[in-house]
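[step 3/7] fold_predict: job queued, chain A
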Amino acid sequence: MSSIRLGSCLCGAVKFEVRGKMRSVVNCHCSLCRRWHGHFGAYTGALLENFTLLEQRGLRWYAVPSGKAERGFCGECGSSLFFRKKEEGTDAIGICAGTLDKPTGLTTKRHEFVADMGDYYELDDALEKWPRGVRVTEV
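[step 4/7] structure written:
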């Protein structure tokens, strides 16, 4: 598997490249992710030093209500793309796994914030299930 991965929004107004290691996919079931994605969010992550925006004309950022993080999306097609903490010294970015071109070479590691998950679905897989969690990375 190549250590270079490409990704984009639906319309191509945001394109990116990741070189090197990426975190396994984590499914976040918090109410913010469910509202942002329309269901739970599946995120991988990368160090910022390995992440490059190749096209960013559509990129917009939405500050989450706490003001401690923001979500990146395409202002042209509406695709959900990124999650990043706004704390000083943050060196990683969360990337919506579905925005990556195949083959990703990634696997899903766990579910997080299952204590907050929607009441319209069940988790019946063998993945770890954390009542809470950390939303960005452990790259």
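[step 5/7] annotate
The mean pLDDT is 93.
The first strand starts at residue 4 and ends at 8.
exit 0
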